[in-house]
Amino acid sequence: MKINEKEFFHQATIRICGSLEIDHSLKNCFLYLKDYIPIEEIWMGLLEKEFSNIRAIAHADNAGSKTMDTIIPLPRILNDEQREQGLKPKRVMIINRMAAHRLSDTVAFPKSSVMIFPLLPEGDRMGVLVLRAEGQNRYSNTHAKLLSMLHDPFVVAMSNNLRHDEVLKLKDMLADDNRYLSRELRQLAGDEIVGAETGLKNVMDMVQQVAPRDNPVLLLGETGVGKEVIANAIHYASPRKNGPFIKVNSGAIPEGLIDSELFGHEKGAFTGAVSQKRGRFERAHGGTIFLDEIGDLPMQAQVRLLRVIQQKEMERVGGTETIEVDVRIITATHRNLEKLMGKNKFREDLWYRLNVFPIIIPPLRQRKTDIPLLIEHFLKRKSRELNFRSIPKIVPGNIERLIDYPWKGNVRELENMVERALIQYNGGLLNFDHFVFPQSDKLPTNTIASGKMLKLDEVCVRHIQSALEAARGRINGPYGAAELLGLLPSTLRGRMNKLGIIYGRKKQTG
Ligand SMILES: Nc1ncnc2c1ncn2[C@@H]1O[C@H](COP(=O)(O)OP(=O)(O)OP(=O)(O)O)[C@@H](O)[C@H]1O
Ligand SMILES: [Mg+2]
User: Fold this and answer.
1) In ligand 1, which atom is closest to the CA atom of 194?
2) pLDDT tens for residues 274-329?
3) Which atom of ligand 1 is nearest to the CA of 193?
4) DSSP secondary structure letters along 184-224
């Protein structure tokens, strides 16, 4: 038969490269090739290191085709001489006298002829085709030549297939990560809001009111009061709870990058914009965006934000395409936005839009009932995180002092205090005093720096006095001054006598 090589190449290529599903391509190619080359079956695979195995990835025969992942040991196909001669890329090896073989658990050859066609390596992987025809001496140099013409299309098909597989795997991994992260987020969100029934009752009532709607919410409050916690609570109590919750800290992103971070950019929009990027608004589509530290938002970004709120659409930086975004906006600030407006640093029209539903989260010193609850909450949580076997007990009187403390850093300061105290904890009763009153005159710790060096005895006196105070004057027994200081009561009495500390009845009569 006279073959029109050009036509053969054209038709075979269309079939080999016709689909990203390699089993489909291989099947179509098989059906075409079998009119020109004797074949019962064809494998596509990867040559493993030092040609020890073929990892077959797809197979086709008259019955159909499938993808697979089967190892075919090469020594069972090639004899020593053939292996020595070696497999060379782009060169078809003909084996015309092959005895019946069992190649693997799933693959068996009767007496056959085989053509092996290694493909030029693609990265560190070398592809291979194996064609088999029943009976001996079935393959000639003409067949080998026809097959070798198809080298390039096979390489393209194979590498596209491998990449496609990688993309699918990555997609699966991303979907998996995504499921995991949303679960984590939901757990965080489901995390107890301490004070929901006490100091934050009004705030939580407002959260319930506003959550089902789509209007913007402005969260106001000092640093560390829990603005982010409340933003989370709004999202997860809203109908958007299964959508994304995207957080942006406007203050943490350099001014020049904020536009592109929020709204994305087109390729080439500015130096360094090497590819198109979706912004956080696009990512938040169908969910909620939380813009923290809104007072730090530069003017230009304020203009774009206003447009998103008013028209629910935006353009990427450097782009002309209008993108619709369906996003619920929660903003937060610890700054005074009216003051910023006065200085022309915050747009009045934006402020009106954001301020439809302000929620003021009161500072901790205005909800003192929450302080013991928060201490207990963080003690439990951090003890668990630090793998403590039990939760340490607190020195009596300590909580009362902490309730009176001003907590300028609010819940975050309290949380940090508990964490630090637990990290440094080494048995006995937990005393938070020196974490919140580090410069207290009862126990000066930085006197060296201040140049006012105290005598060691003086420090001991003050420390013992503060222990006595914490123990309400008692030396013996649980929570007594001796236990607090880790001493036997008799030892403590001896020290106090030596240092001239008057205590107990002597003090009352003296
Ligand atoms: N009511 C609460 N119950 C439990 N944990 C809380 C509560 N409020 C705040 N926290 C915890 O305190 C820390 C600070 O809270 P958050 O980050 O929400 O404060 P913020 O107001 O956003 O602070 P900043 O102004 O500094 O951004 C977080 O670790 C948070 O989990
Ligand atoms: Mg915050």
Assistant:
1) 3
2) 788 889 999 999 999 999 999 999 999 999 999 999 999 999 999 888 999 999 99
3) 3
4) HHHHHHHS--TTTTTTTHHHHHHHHHHTTS-S-EEEE--TT
- Which residue, 271, 368, 263, is CA-closest to 316? 263
Enumerate residue ranges in the chain where pLDDT < 50: 440-444, 510
Tokens of 14: 């269309």
CATH number of 5-164: 3.30.450.40
CB 108 within 8 A of CB 99: no
- Equal CATH topology for 5-164 and 191-362: no
Lining residues, ligand 1, CB within 6 Å = 193-195, 200, 221, 223-229, 292, 334, 411-412, 415
Which residues have C-beta within 8 Å of that of residue 406, sequence separation ≥ 6? 365
The first and second tokens of residue 379, run together, are 């003690």
For residue 292, the ligand 1 atom closest to its alpha carbon is 27
Amino acid, single-letter form, for residue 15 = R
Class of domain 370-509: mainly alpha
Cβ contacts of 382-385, under 8 Å, gap ≥ 24 = 382/418, 382/419, 382/422, 383/422
> Whose CA is closest to atom 12 on ligand 1?
412
Q: Is the dihedral of CA 15, 21, 22, 23 positive or negative?
A: negative
Closest C-alpha to ligand 1, atom 18: 226
Q: Delimit the domains of the chain by residue range.
A: 5-164, 191-362, 370-509
CATH of domain 191-362: 3.40.50.300
